[in-house]
Amino acid sequence: MPSTRPTRKATGTKAAPAPSKKVVPAPAKKAVVAPKSKKRTVEEARDESDDEFGEVAIDMASDDDEEDMDGDDESDDAEDFPEEGEEGQDMSAADLEEDEDEDSEGSYMDGDSIVDSQEELDDEDAEDEEDEESDFDDLVEDDIDPNFGHNLNEPLAPESDYNPIIREYPEIDPVYDSDSSTEENENTVGNIPMHWYDDYPHIGYDIDGKKIMRPATGDELDKFLSTMDDPDSWLSAHNYKEGQDVKLSAEELEIIRRLEGNRIPDADYNPYEDQVEFFSSKTEIMPLSAAPEPKRRFIPSKHEAKRIMKIVRAIREGRIVPRKSGYVPPKPKYYNLWNDAEDKPREEHVMHITAPKMKLPTHDESYNPPAEYLPTEEEIKEWNEMDKEDRPKNYLPQKYNALRNVPGYGQFIQERFERCLDLYLAPRVRKNRLNIDPESLIPKLPSPRDLQPFPTRLAIEFLGHEGRVRSISVDPTGLWMASGSDDKTVRIWEISTGRCMATYHLDELVTSVVWGPNKDVAVLAVACGYKVGLILPEKLFSPELTLHSEEYLKAGFANVATGEPNPKAQWKQPTPAEFEKGIRVWVHLQKPVKQVTWHRKGDYFSTVAPDANNSAVLIHQLTKHQTQQPFKKTKGAVQRVMFHPTKPMFFVATQRYVRQYNLQRQELVKTMQTGVKWISSLDVHPAGDNLIIGSYDKRLCWFDLDLSSKPYKTLRYHQQAIRSVAYHKRYPLFASCADDGNVQIFHGMVYNDLLQNPLIVPVKILKNVHQRVEALGALCVEWHPTQPWLISSGADHTIKLFS
């Protein structure tokens, strides 16, 4: 540790000038004393004489000074003063004063101590002066001449600034524990959590292994009182390792302030110092190393040349492929140990398919299952009587008190063998799972508000029938509606008021009623049993229209008398009683008629009798009273037929297919594969390029005739069998009804652009329109010809109009 020496302040005080007379000092005595004891003596003497010096600054000598002092002590313990006549003795008072000022200022600024002696010595060489000062520090009282630096003729004061009294202290033996009173017991437990010693009376161990007892600590009130009494309590920090408060010094507080301000703790440290280029590109005159350049720096290495040629030969032979530009090294592969499904197939074989995972055990497979999983005696008996193939599980849950009581599983080998057979013999197919957002598959449909008008509410209810209303039809003018029911009646209603204008009683159940499409002829076709009747409602139309329609219906009887009759269909006149009712013509067939449909011109109509086999479909001409069979042989049981609205095409729907025929060329144009089990209804779009079908297996299929023979859209919104489907003749609407009693309304826009597909949007569900009676609900739907009104009939004997 560097020694401390008292130094005189350099502010305003000057040493007394030396006398001009030459001073001849006495020869100094050489005292041989141990260096350690001398330093100790001088230090203790200076510590005790601090009060005698007054305002004297204490400066710590540097390590270099201490080394210099040690070196001087080794060479010679004390320096002989120069004799009279030697160089450096003759000095004037002015020179001494000037040198003293320079030495005091320089030594004080540089950190070197100033010798407090009788006068300041001057030397031309600064290093010799420091050596002399260090030598003087090591001298004891006997080695110092009391008359040095003063006039020998003048007496000296017994004690003054120039003649300090040096006290001697007994020599201290520099061994361990020689001065234990100034040392502290350092806790040597190391860097451990101190809360481990919370339950012990000591807080650690000193260097001798002795316990360091925990210092007495008061409660929180004592801490508060001590904090209030001590104004410097905020300057202290608690040392948990020693168990006591330590007062922080000014340097430590400055470090804390700098750390809080995000600054470097050391104030003297400059992080932006200029870089010292020890090794640069410039050739220095005095290099750091004067060693000659090694031989390996300017002679090529033969060993490296051999290795390079070895790599070059490997590249030429193709054993090493150079990396291409932009090469990215492969990333290390990490495998998820807990992932059940393999991320990628194994590379052993292309056709390898991972074996499926076994099902995880359930609660009833536990050795101690809950009580609700344990079978009863009846279930155990029933399980034992079953065959092994019929048993839902090949084990019965059992309860054991401990896992050690569970016996071995007897079917383990058999089950392992069967699983191996399943893995080896059962074919497996790889199915790639597509991670697709389900919402992205739903097409963006317009809002139903933008697709109005369409029927939304019940407007009129037609009551009067006493049986199921199987068929309804609206005349071309939109004023009248006809309905046929199982009560063997045909009723004609006024649509705007809901009044029943006429009722026709027939002999058989009415299966179909259809108004003629020609506005110039008021005729209604009714199918009941084995015959089809043509009715002229005289009271509903004007006399001119009634007269024209009468002549139109009677014109065909003249051709019947001259032509050959068709045995499959007979045209007959009604009886006078039937004529009074309004029936004008009867057409008798061989089998019951299920459907009647008109040609767009109103001269032809077709009938369907599914039980008639090859003659199930017949086409009748009203003006000539002739009947013809378009097909010699029908393929399947015919369900529905329709004429094309604009072309000479004819659609025939069998049980599973829809066929399109050209009547002029008498050939099959297209066969539509519906994909349903049983077709129930059929309708053609007014433009003629699209058609819809309903089926008993709850499906509605839309066909685009120009696109494909398979359905463009298949809709399944009903819960029961679909009974009827219908297009609107003016608005882009179509509807369907089913046995669930609901009516579905759709927006179906067909574009003139062939590149744009039809737009189908469900807009309204009319729920519980008709009550279910004997598993039958809504039986028929029909659109108003000019208004967006929908009329439906059902098995609950009612007819309802929605607007």
TrEMBL record:
UniProt-recorded name of the protein: Ribosome biogenesis protein ERB1
InterPro entries reported in the protein's UniProt record: BOP1/Erb1, BOP1_N_dom, WD40/YVTN_repeat-like_dom_sf, WD40_repeat_CS, WD40_repeat_dom_sf, WD40_rpt
Subunit and interaction comment: Component of the NOP7 complex, composed of ERB1, NOP7 and YTM1. Within the NOP7 complex ERB1 appears to interact directly with NOP7 and YTM1. The NOP7 complex also associates with the 66S pre-ribosome.
HAMAP family noted in UniProt: BOP1
Organism the protein comes from: Linnemannia gamsii
Function comment: Component of the NOP7 complex, which is required for maturation of the 25S and 5.8S ribosomal RNAs and formation of the 60S ribosome.
PANTHER family for this protein: RIBOSOME BIOGENESIS PROTEIN BOP1, RIBOSOME BIOGENESIS PROTEIN BOP1 BLOCK OF PROLIFERATION 1 PROTEIN
GO BP, sorted A to Z: maturation of 5.8S rRNA from tricistronic rRNA transcript (SSU-rRNA, 5.8S rRNA, LSU-rRNA); maturation of LSU-rRNA from tricistronic rRNA transcript (SSU-rRNA, 5.8S rRNA, LSU-rRNA)
Extent of Acidic residues compositional bias: 45-54, 61-105, 117-145
Family designation: Belongs to the WD repeat BOP1/ERB1 family.
Main location: nucleus
Compartment list: Nucleus, Nucleolus; Nucleus, Nucleoplasm
Keyword annotations from UniProtKB, A to Z: Nucleus, Repeat, Ribosome biogenesis, rRNA processing, WD repeat
